[in-house]
Amino acid sequence: MGALMGLFVGLGVVVVGLLVVVARRRRSGPSEYAQGLLIEQQARREASRVRSEVRSLRAHAGMTATFAASRLTRGR
Q: So where does this one cross the membrane (predicted)?
């Protein structure tokens, strides 16, 4: 019977601890961690944009002779 009571007390302590953590997070607003994620997402979008611009420039600059020859012979 004492072990069962100990189990319930332990579970109660865990539940109260989790409620305290959730209450503190809601009150504190956005954290630095969330701000870091937003900055990271913005950097990822910018890098994607730059990569697509470079691909576009390469495509419009024309193919080199070696690349063109390999494309012509690859299909055969």
A: 6-23
CA distances from 56 to 23, 26, 51, 64, 67 (A): 50, 45, 9, 15, 17
What tens digit of pLDDT does each residue of 19-37 get? 999 888 777 666 667 788 8
The token pair at 64 is 């080199």
d(CA 23, CA 32): 18
Q: What is the 3-state secondary structure (H, E, C) of the chain?
A: CHHHHHHHHHHHHHHHHHHHHHHHHHHHCCCHHHHHHHHHHHHHHHHHHHHHHHHHHHHHHCCCHHHHHHHHHHCC
